[in-house]
Amino acid sequence: MRLFLVPVIIMFLQSCSTTSNNHHSSVYCNTCARSSNDGSIHRDITAKKAFMRQTDYPNGRPGYVVDHIIPLYKGGEDTPENMQWLTVGQHKEKHRDL
Ligand SMILES: [Zn+2]
Asked: What is the CA(31)–ligand 1 centre distance, in A?
């Protein structure tokens, strides 16, 4: 009986890691911002809010994410000038190579 449970546990673990990889549930591009192994964001969101105000979407844009044109981990700046709106699909395409 114990052996029978092993595949179930493996399936459960796989589904967990898939869920936690989905950073696109947020309106903000965490993939661009990731600069260290832990993947956490140590910045304030002032620049993002300024960008959203400037583009007339102060409360976010349904179906879109705020993307860094040059990702922060590639040396891009965390400023409104380096931000753009991408659809969720376009954004997935951009980060597919990661
Ligand atoms: Zn991005």
From this structure: 5
Q: What residues pair up with 28 in beta bridges, in sequence order? A: 66
CA–centroid distance, 5 to ligand 1, in Å, is 39
**pLDDT tens track for 46-91:** 899 999 999 999 999 999 999 999 988 889 999 999 999 999 999 9
User: How far is the CA of 16 from the CAs of 12, 40, 63, in angstroms?
Assistant: 6, 18, 24
Evaluate if pTM is beyond 0.85.
no
Distance separating alpha carbons of residues 17 and 24, to the nearest angstrom: 14
Tokens of residue 81, six digits: 């000038």
